[in-house]
Amino acid sequence: MKKTVRLTMAQALLRFLDNQYVSIDGQERKFVKGVFGIFGHGNATGLGEALEFHRGGLTYYQGKNEQGMAHAAIAYAKQKNRLEIMACTSSIGPGALNMVTAAGVATVNRIPVLFLPGDIFACRQPDPVLQQVEDPTDYTISANDAFKPVSRYWDRITRPEQLMTAMINAMRVLTDPVNTGAVTIALPQDVQAEAYDYPEEFFQKRVHYIDRVVPPRDAIRRAVEVIRNKKRPLIIAGGGVHYSLATEALKAFAEAFRIPVTETQAGKSALPWNHPLNMGGVGVNGSLAGNKLAREADLVIAVGTRLTDFPTASKSAFQNPDVTFVGINVSTFDAIKLDACPVVGDAREALKALREALREINYQSSYTEEELAALKKQWDDEVDRLAGLETPEGLTQTRVIGEINRAIGEDAVIVCASGSLPGDLLKLWRSVHPKTYHMEYGFSCMGYEVAGALGIKMAEPDREVYALVGDGGYLMLHTELVTAIQEGRKINILLFDNNGFQCIHSLQNGQGSEGFGNEFRFRSPETGRLTGDYMPIDYAASARAYGAVAYTARTVDELRQALEDAKKQKVSTLIDIKVLPRTGMPGYDSWWRLGVAETSESENVRKAHVAMMEKAATARAY
């Protein structure tokens, strides 16, 4: 007779999670490291009780906003290359819905996070309960159904014994490099507290093996046939290079055939910035060197990237009529994008196999060392110019980035997600080591930055972590600064205060508008609109109120002094950097497709629409 143990569903869930491990390349590690949570009537007496008396290896972390704590969990898993995760629990209703945006972030970026929102009573006896969403056409629907479109796996536990199949499936998805993302297990508050005689074997140590998918020989052969006669190839390195631990394989492949490398936001830091073959970013926010090479390339090898509209410049970056694509990706869905010849497999194994096959035919690109060195020097000189740009009016965004890059050290980690900073950082930031550049640009979620810094610090406790965030993003969500202080996890917030959502203000300007609704100004009694003076906000004062050490910088000297002093602090810091609006970098031979009004009172808007559609005609159709 099988041995059983009587536990509530919530207690069983924690015991199960505490015994999950992953193994890759023969190295085993504990997979679920802790639980972020905010308690309410949907989880306090169920999962909350289980956490209170849990004596295993799961640490509970108190969030301050459900979306914020989930962003921290995402950043933790991303920094750990998806080999360790956190779970997130909330109450029902608004507490659960606060995590839906973060679930979208996780799924779009292919980052594993386990969401455990409380749910309404499965028994329905006290319905409708506080915070219950009632659908008169389908009584099975609750607020948690909103997670379905943004989850890679979704389940609702209406009986305690359902936990077993649900969690086996949850682990299947969370540990799958192809299908990972948000996993949502909705937990009705009554069922969390119900007991069941669970078989003891359900709680035995489970090791989930992340096997490297070796691409088929025929796929390598087909890719070699595509590459064989190409003279001007270009590599686009995406986040999959990091997740497959393939940075050395990428370097060896590029060097073997003298192929220049460009990077996406997720792939940046795969090669050191000063490597002779690193040409910077590509696409909308690409470098001059990267975009020139993309325009002329007759072959593009995309490694571990989703090929979104930013690296492809809305499919306009590649103008050589003979250009073809090879897609190296563990996901077939991504490998075939841009009608590529797919090489479906682990990035490290695929690069190794393709390198050996190309060596056999003595392949070599037609680039000369002198040609690539000249392109790289031209771009490096432009970065130096903008990173040292001085103006008597105040601090420019490019100068501030340059000063930060020089000051914080090559082992520090920066995190960013939204506004004009990601574009400038892709162009300007000089990363020396892998995983020192952490950008959430799959969803580009405002408010990720501060919470993300906490998650990174939890993953990398011995490194200094810096959140680069605009004032708009900071106001969206910065409450996990309090959690960082509470936990003694020092993070550094570098707040670019430019009086509003200036990235979108510039976008409007670029399409014929004079700018509307994006600057932090007082409402003018004369115009009735937000056209009055800028709002003077003391962000440093608010950070001090939380317990952080804070500074205000209006000059280069003040910025340098603040950066140096912040390094010495033991608690979290914030530097309120007063930056001139719209002093970021321009585009370099790039384009981004937008929906510009076809009819407008503004002649400039109408002209912008015509220009947009003319450029769209030059982009690839698929």
Overall description:
The protein has 622 residues and is of the alpha/beta class. The protein folds into 3 domains: 4-209, Rossmann fold (3-Layer(aba) Sandwich); 217-375, TPP-binding domain (Rossmann fold), CATH 3.40.50; 388-499 and 535-578, Thiamin diphosphate (ThDP)-binding fold, Pyr/PP domains (Rossmann fold, 3-Layer(aba) Sandwich), CATH 3.40.50. Helix content is 35%, strand content 18%. The strands form 5 sheets. It has a 6-stranded parallel β-sheet with strand order 5-4-6-7-9-8, sandwiched between helices. It has a 6-stranded parallel β-sheet with strand order 14-13-12-15-16-17, sandwiched between helices. Helix 3 packs parallel to helix 5 (100-108). The longest helix is centred in the middle third of the chain and has 19 residues, at 369-387.
Layout of helices and strands:
Layout: E1 4-8, H1 9-17, E2 20-24, E3 27-30, E4 32-37, H2 47-52, E5 59-62, H3 66-79, E6 85-90, H4 94-97, H5 100-108, E7 113-119, E8 153-156, H6 163-174, E9 182-188, H7 189-192, E10 195-199, E11 206-209, H8 217-227, E12 233-237, H9 240-243, H10 247-257, E13 261-263, E14 278-281, H11 288-296, E15 299-303, E16 324-329, H12 332-335, E17 341-344, H13 347-360, H14 369-387, H15 397-408, E18 413-416, H16 421-428, E19 437-439, H17 448-459, E20 465-470, H18 471-476, H19 480-487, E21 492-497, H20 502-510, H21 539-546, E22 549-553, H22 556-568, E23 573-578, H23 603-616
Parallel strand pairs: 2-11, 4-5, 4-6, 6-7, 7-9, 8-9, 12-13, 12-15, 13-14, 15-16, 16-17, 18-19, 18-20, 20-21, 21-23, 22-23
Antiparallel strand pairs: 1-10, 2-3
Helix pairs in contact: 3-5, 3-17, 8-13, 10-13, 15-16, 15-22
